[in-house]
Amino acid sequence: MAFTVAIDGPAAAGKGTIGKAVAAHFGFAHLDTGLLYRAVARHMLDGTDPIVAARGLRTEDLDTEGLRTPEVARAASRVAAMPEVRRALVDFQRAFARRGGGAVLDGRDIGTVICPEAEVKLFVTATDAVRAGRRHRELVGTGHEVSLEEVAQDLRQRDARDSARADAPLRPADDAVVLDTSKLDIDAAVARAIDIIGRARG
Ligand code: DC
Fold this sequence. Notes:
Layout: E1 4-8, H1 15-26, E2 29-32, H2 34-45, H3 50-55, H4 70-79, H5 83-97, E3 103-107, H6 110-114, E4 120-125, H7 128-141, H8 148-164, E5 177-180, H9 186-201
Parallel strand pairs: 1-3, 1-4, 2-3, 4-5
The site of 2'-deoxycytidine-5'-monophosphate (DC) has 15 residues, from helix 2, helix 4 and helix 8.
């Protein structure tokens, strides 16, 4: 039976970590949809037309190394504003969302556009300062030399672009539960999400 958990929110709010943990808890499949846009962006940076890249995207492309860099994130936000790119990625995401056995998708437009019929919709957010601090620690931890101010500026620009675009902008669905993780550690945020999903499952 299909059971979809849609998790949306701005960059570095904790969507991916929460998505992965709740999927493991309930035995659902998990798709980080940001990786689709990052993989298209990687192809664009390598010289391929982003629309062609999106139409030809293969699941192996999501395993490519180096998709988590700030450069790719910036480019992903740019290709994500192209309606043809978004359109090319819809069917794959919808099929994933409605597969049997349950699915968790995290992104920006899952509850609003990809799967408005999702059984659970979470909008995960945190203050700008908390998100910048988390992403900065993550990047430094993986060997990137970048200042906190650069990371903060990057997030601001990306969120502004993701929220202002005409096609599928970042916003909470009307029926989403907002989960502010500013003052929660990972375990507490995951516990809160598990509680919300468990109730919806009945
Ligand atoms: O979640 P992320 O940081 O990996 O996403 C990278 C970019 O991809 C983000 O800036 C906006 C875009 N994106 C999107 O437009 N829609 C989604 N469902 C997921 C990501």
